[in-house]
Amino acid sequence: LSGSGVPQLVQLMIWDYAADIDVEGKVQLIEKYRRCGFSRVWFASAFKGATGVNQSLTLIGHHLRNQLEWLQVASRSPADVLEGIVLTGWQRYDHFSVLCELLPVAIPSLAVCLQALKNGGYSEKVKENVEKLLGMSNLEIDTFMR
């Protein structure tokens, strides 16, 4: 792979939407890609649409934990390896499926995930900031928002 010239032509994106990423496995994968000549990689997380084909509402806690896991991968990787994190928001599992988790119900999840990434973690201050930004009195992380 390193002799093919491909690492100079493309950038890799490592996708994982789980709430319990294998952090050490991802760090080892990044090192493997670096040895092949890929100097930078992207991470792909999800703020919605990755928990079930017929999911209607967004469980913020799942997606928040996904972001926090990616932050752990980033902190355990070489400082210059991360190009960026893409927050995906799927609405279909395939072209024949119905839509799931439409954007309006997922906006609180997007806001929490972005603030957690921006602040390097999640805290009561982050929660309060999201509530203020969205004009919400009580942001529910581990239950479905009403």
TrEMBL record:
Protein name: HEXDC Hexosaminidase
GO molecular function: hexosaminidase activity
Highest rank taxon of the organism: Eukaryota
Native organism: Rhipidura dahli
Name of the gene this protein is made from: Hexdc_0
PANTHER family for the chain: BCDNA.GH04120, HEXOSAMINIDASE D
UniProt-listed InterPro entries: GH (IPR017853), HEXDC-like (IPR038901)
Gene3D superfamilies to which the protein is assigned, alphabetical: Glycosidases (3.20.20.80)
